[in-house]
Amino acid sequence: MDDMRPGLVRPVRLDSSGRTGPTRGQARNASRWRRSSHGHYVPADVDATLPEQRIVEAAAALPDRCAITGWAALRWLGGSWFTGVGADGRPLPVTLLISTHDVRPQPGIEVCGEGAGRHDILRVHGLAVTSPAWSTAFLMRRAASPLQAVVDLDMTAYSDLVSLDEVAAVIAQQSSWTGVPQARWALARGSENAWSPMEVRARLAWTTHVEDARPEANRPVFDLAGHHLGTPDLLEPTAGIAVEYDGLVHLGREQRRADRTRDEVFAAHGIELVRWLSGDGVDDFLRRLTAAHRGAALRDGPRTWTTVPPPWWTPTTTVAARRQLSASQRARLLRYRTA
C-alpha cells in the first residue's frame, strides 16, 4: 500500500465489519485499542513514546496537500538530534502545516496556518513532510529564543540535511513571515560543523562575551609538519584559544586519559585550552575563558600549529564536503561525532 517504515503502525479508522479497523465496540476496549487522533486508532500495545510513531499518528490527521513540518519533519528526514522532547523533558507537539484547512485541536498535535509550495512538500516513506530547508527555516522562525534558532539550524546541518545557503534561500522568500528577523539573526551565526547543542551554546556565549571573537566549530589543528594535533570543539584561531565541553561522555577513565593527553599536546604548541565542565554554569565558563584570553594576549614567539590541512587530509567541515563522502568514509571520518 505504501512504503511505511518497518516497525511503525499506521492508524486506522473505525470499521463496522472489523476488517480494516476496530468496530465501535472494540474501540471502547482500552486494553486492545488506543485512540491516536480524532477518528483514528492503533493497537494499545503500540509505543506512543517513539518519535517516529508519534509522527505517523499525527500525520493521520493531515488534510490533503498538507504536510508535517518542524522538528517532526526533520526527524522523519533523518535529523538525529530532533528527538521530539523539549528542554523540560516533555514531548513536543507534532506540527501540521494546514494552510487554510481546518483540523480539530487534539493532544500531541499543533496546527499552523502557513502554507508551503508544492516543491517544498516531499513524500518520504509514506508521509508528506516539508523539505529540510523549509522545515529548518520554520523552526528558526518559531524558536523560543534566538539561541534555540541557531541550535536548530546547526543540528540540521549536523545531519547534512541542509546547508546554510539552502536555508538562506528559503528565508529570502519569506521576508514578511512570522519570525524572519530572528531567523536571519540565527543564520548569520550558524555553523555547518557543530557536533552538539552545547557546542552551539558555548560558541554563542563566547562571541557575546568577547568582542571580535570568531570561534570555529570542530576545526582540525595540525603541527607545521602536517600531523594532526586534535580537533577541539571550538577554536578561535586568531587568539589561539580552544574550548572543549566535557559532558557525561568525558567522565570515563579512558576518556579522561585521552583528554589529558590532548591538553598536553595543545599546551606544548601554545594553544590555551578552556573546558566547560558538565554541571558548570555559563558564568564559570566565561570566567575561565576571560583568563585564557588574558594569557593568550601575553603569548609571543612563532606559532607551531596551523589550521591549514595537509594535502592528504579529507575535509569534513562543511555540508557539501560531507555529502561527497562515501558510506565507508562517513563511518570512518565521522565516527567521533556524538549523535
From TrEMBL:
Chain segments carrying region Disordered: 1-36
Taxonomic source organism: Nocardioides faecalis
Domain of life: Bacteria
The protein's name: DUF559 domain-containing protein
